[in-house]
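Q: Entry one of two.
A:
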Amino acid sequence: MQDGTPPIKHAIRDLTSSDEDLEKIWQMWQTIFPEWPIERQRMEKILHQLPGQHYIHEKGFCLSFLTDGSHGKIAAIGVLPEYRGKGLGTAFMKNAQAKLRNVARTNEGELKSLEIRSQTPRFWPQVPIDFPQEVKDFFLHRGFRKSTGSTVRDLYKDIRGAVASPEILERVSKMNLKFSPWSPELYEECMTKQRANFSWFKAYEALAAYNQHHEVMVAFDPDTNAQIGWTLMCSHTAIISDSFAFLPLMPSKEKTGLIAAVGVDESARGKGVGLALMVKAMENMRERGVEGVYIDSVVIRDFYEKLGFKTF
């Protein structure tokens, strides 16, 4: 410091699985992010079930994760209002980066990137556009840069009425396809094709491990009975839904479902299978009591909008 005052040393430590630490971080979250509250039980599941590098201080916390062995994600940095401007946020940032780099090296790799976002578990897909400018400047002034790619959006649709327009429903009804919820008997073929085509196959593995195959819709070629398309169609009780921090904040609250990992086998693409999967999945979800559907981290444009989804 130019005035001779030594820099503040912040007593940052690893977050433990103790009830005391959980209660502390949960209480701080509600104060720091009042417009993005998280249920205590949901916070506990996110922190305890999914591995991460998390840190706590009497006045704040940092949640970070390493994905694919080499890509760091800082999901949240929170500092209580009365303690801001004292360097704690910067200290959290440096601490997380150093620890993520060490974890990557332990896995015989290196930290290739560091982003302010989350993937699994899911908080925000990017820094929310309605965050104050000083929050965005905090990251920009510490070496981060704005993404040059398309804006990532979360989408939502009320499905208490028609799940699609009459034109789309008619189009889907004329498609020569079969649909059915997933089942254990369909596991091997599904997972073989998932691993060959998509990076999200672990979500399907997780549902199968908890015997929640019914949370997936499958499309079949009616001539060969081969599986050609899949989508998650999760209710709020699905194990996958537990990792989405803000799912209960949707207008439909505890009756919100999740559609994700919509995939079509390479041999069947360009034929409307994905659109039909969405329609059949929403119809199934509505039958199970789901009133609203959430889709996270959407980059593509004009596909989900055809079905009435809007940015949340």
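Q: Entry two of two.
A:
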Amino acid sequence: MASMLWDPKFPRDGPYVKVEETYFGSSGKSETPLKLRIATGGAGQSGLVKALADAFIDDHVKGTGCEPFSVGWLKSDTAGSFNYLAQASADLSITYHKVAEEIAKDQGVWDRRVYAWRDHFMLVGPKSNPAKLSTDGKQSIHTLFTQLFRGAVESNNSIKFLSRFDKSATNLKESSIWTAIGQVPWAYPYSFFYHVVSAFPFQALEAAAKLGEYHLVDWGTWNGVEQWVRDNMMIYYLAKDDDPEMLNPARVLVGTHGKNKDMTNAFADWIIKDDGGQKVVSEFAVNGVVLYTKAPRDTLEG
């Protein structure tokens, strides 16, 4: 949901938000006009947004005969992305929380949604495993968080869990897991094993690796960071496509008030095509590892 709503007094292209990166397709023509602004977080850091943007530019220019154009990435988390749409600072967002998306729709923030891809949440931590989490791969995420809580309490809070605590989809997911096992470590009295590091996905995971702390992250981020991070940590839980509770579904939201509606809807059409965005998603890999899986065919729209 958005914490601010559309104001007709906003500039037509929304309050200015600095573009983190700009993509030009294979032409590489940096003087081309910016026609699409995409607000999202981890998929920008991993490089998927660039891969999608470059492929979309090339396909759209070839298919329509239009002049080359550029696409900008606005670095944001899920909560911030709703606000960028509400302000019309972004034309579309890629978000990961269906309930919050439904509220944003009721707020008039977006008017079209398509399922773009699936990422997968995972629990990682130090290889030394000081909390003695089960490693047989048979335990639920709730059992593992319970083991982590017990280990942290018994260690007098020397064992820690690192939370981004930033209203991101990952923060919302780990919060729901904690409350599901009857714990609210950020509430008073504060649980000192709960270590807050408000940072974007790559930086938060790097901090957890340096500090030897447990952390909830997604598969795309895990494989997108530098090798030393993975060398210092291990996976305790990894969601699969048949594990809906721990999936991290990415959906494209077309902003109601965006400046470039035709281009935004063209991108939404393209990203769900088997020979368009879905092909890019299924082939996008870092160091030989595919980071995401395609959207299920029966739920592409809505």
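A: Comment on entry two: The chain has a mean pLDDT of 93. The first strand starts at residue 21 and ends at 23.
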